[in-house]
Amino acid sequence: MHSLLWLGFRAFIISLVLTPICRDVFRSYGVVDQPDAARKVHRYPIPRVGGLAIAIAYLLAYVLVRPEEGSPLAQQVSLAWRLIPGAALACGIGLLDDLFNLRPWIKLLGQLGAAGLACVSGVRIL
Hints:
Blueprint: H1 4-28, E1 32-33, E2 46-47, H2 51-63, H3 72-82, H4 84-100, H5 104-120
Antiparallel strand pairs: 1-2
């Protein structure tokens, strides 16, 4: 019954639970993006760092699975674990950007670094 589709669905359900919790926590601590007349068109403050709930859901979905050794799912999960260093860097850059409004070139360098980490880890798209 385990497949990457099932794991993706599990991560989706976990993120559906965590997102409102994170939204309420960050809104109560004032970690919000304030609207302005120029670029930000939302009408009321929007909580930042929403990607944190998605990253936690991704990790929990993979931590909770225990595939049988040698199964096709075990190979797929192994590949997914190789994404973790690059995904962690991308998540960290996004989190820092949400909190401190990083300059575009810093975000680009972080994203290039995340792609490089994934490549070094053996992730390839053929």
